[in-house]
Specification:
By secondary structure, the chain is of the alpha/beta class. It has 14 helices and 22 strands. α8 packs parallel to α9. The longest helix is centred in the last third of the chain and has 26 residues. The chain binds 5'-deoxyadenosine and iron/sulfur cluster.
């Protein structure tokens, strides 16, 4: 799953559902009940950001309001990521700042949520003395109760993983939203056991969410003015839900169609696809509906079949390339992005060159690239030696990054001179005189504001030039 920058959640667009409360003891005065203030900061993949919206929803039902300044908060949550060691280190550094704030504001509750909570469990309370709460990704419904335990003077932990929990009935509170695009979580957990990956241990077994609740969430978002949804799962292609007491199964291709049919003006994106599971049926569904974006995030991890086998990816180089050929055949112009790990256990220089050559073959639009980071408890940590020296991992990473830079530019240059349908997502970061939004292939475009068109509308934009990551153009409607 794509990793996004740390972001804090505050100032939700939705008003809190809790109204003003009259104090019966003081009839002359209308005293507004103080709502407890919640600050949530999220790290890691989009699923964590989506989970924070569920957490906010659960606590707003308890009378909390969300705020954007942790120093003012009664409860500070950090929704954590364990995918690489440096992700955990960033969280620990940030916790130091929260702990300093707590010393200035006694009574502040600090909670660690998500993957690090699940990985470290009660040990977290030993290691970080000022943390009050440790809550795993399947235990968020228990938060009101756990906060009560902290209010009563104990520290609280719930890291139980579930085989059923999908939070299907909880309407996420859209936080830090542009009011145009939103995430919808369609499944949780992962059963794949890639040998480098900690996710199966921190997020538990894979389970899919009821399609009716997904379609309803998409419809509600459309009705509220949203125009793009991203369906989220660790491996969306293995989505499977048994309906009608098990007599009928909905797979990912069918789910995509159902969501696409909510409204032709609702764009549908999804992440992450797994090369072993992405079927032609899914590709045909993408090709069939104009509003399903022509963009697939298809992590390759390595271009070498021996390394892929050690990674337990369950496909080889040929299989991956066949899937890419199928994408190109069934969905011409489809954007493809990927994830790559350099310096996995025992990877040789020649094997690393296979990764460079698969990149040359596919010419990805975009890539997330990482040096291998051994995670405790994973299959690789147990079975294989982390024997590629750190400098060599970094050197290979630099080669991969440089190659990707060339390919991204190649793709961008191919877009120049063409007209793209863009959903206006907001104003550009640099200037209020420019709008920004993405084309079908997920490439960011920046173009001058035209008063006839508002945020949330579609426009045709001619790409006139590009920087290293953005197309620059003008509306030609
Ligand atoms: N080291 C480096 N990168 C990793 N990823 C997952 N686990 C590790 C690890 N131990 C990368 C993979 C995955 C992405 C989300 O993070 O490329 O697709
Ligand atoms: Fe991790 Fe592999 Fe599952 Fe992705 S598919 S979350 S890399 S185990």
């Amino acid at each position: 799953m794509k990793e996004v920058d740390r972001i804090h959640f505050g100032s939700p667009l939705e008003e809190s559902r809790q109204g003003e409360v009259l104090d019966m003891q003081a009839p002359e005065e209308h005293i507004k009940e103080e709502r407890r203030k919640l600050y949530i900061e999220s790290y890691g993949c989009q699923m964590n950001f989506s989970d924070s919206e569920i957490v906010a929803s659960i606590l707003m039902d308890q009378g909390f309001e969300t705020i954007g300044d942790y120093k003012e908060a009664d409860v500070v949550f950090v929704n954590t990521c364990s995918i690489r060691e440096n992700a955990e280190q960033r969280v620990r550094n940030r916790l130091k700042e929260f702990e300093a704030a707590k010393q200035r504001k006694p009574g502040m509750i600090i909670g660690v949520l998500g993957c690090m909570a699940e990985r470290l469990k009660a040990r977290f309370l030993e290691e970080e003395k000022l943390v009050d709460l440790v809550v795993g990704p399947d235990a968020y419904r228990d938060l009101p109760n756990l906060i009560q335990q902290v209010d009563d003077g104990s520290r609280a932990v719930n890291v139980l993983l579930s085989r059923e929990e999908t939070y299907a009935d909880i309407s996420p509170v859209r936080l830090n939203s542009n009011g145009v695009s939103a995430f919808i979580s369609i499944m949780r957990g992962c059963d794949n056991m890639c040998s480098f990956c900690v996710v199966p241990f921190t997020r538990g077994r894979e389970r899919s969410r009821d399609p009716e609740s997904i379609v309803k969430e998409a419809q509600d978002l459309y009705n509220a003015g949203y125009r793009e949804v991203t369906l989220l799962g660790q491996n969306v292609d293995s989505y499977k839900f048994k309906c009608n007491e098990g007599t009928r199964t909905v797979n990912f291709a069918q789910l995509l169609e159902k969501v696409a049919l909510v409204h032709p003006d609702l764009r549908v994106r999804f992440s992450t696809s797994h090369p072993k599971d992405i079927t032609n049926e899914v590709l045909y569904a993408i090709a069939k509906y104009e509003n399903i974006c022509k963009y697939i995030h298809l992590p390759v991890q390595s271009g070498n079949s021996r390394v892929l086998e050690l990674m337990n990816r369950t496909y080889d180089r040929e299989w991956y390339l066949e899937r890419v050929d199928a994408i190109r055949r069934i969905i011409p112009d489809c954007g493809i992005s990927t994830d790559i790990i350099t310096g996995f256990c025992s990877e040789t220089v020649e094997e690393h060159e296979d990764t460079l050559s698969i990149m040359d073959h596919v010419k990805y639009d975009f890539a997330y690239m990482f040096a291998y980071s051994e995670r405790p408890g994973t299959l690789a940590a147990k079975r294989y030696e982390d024997d590629v020296p750190e400098e060599e991992k970094k050197r290979r990473l630099t080669e991969v990054v440089n190659k990707q830079r060339e390919h991204s530019l190649y793709r961008l240059e191919n877009f120049v001179g063409k007209v793209h349908k863009v959903l206006i997502e907001g104003f550009s970061k640099r200037s209020d005189e420019d709008y920004c939004g993405r084309n079908d292939q997920n490439t960011m475009m920046v173009f001058p504001v035209d008063e006839r068109f508002k945020v949330g509308q579609y426009v045709n934009v001619l790409a006139e030039t590009c920087t290293s990551a953005t197309l620059i153009g003008r509306i030609v409607d």
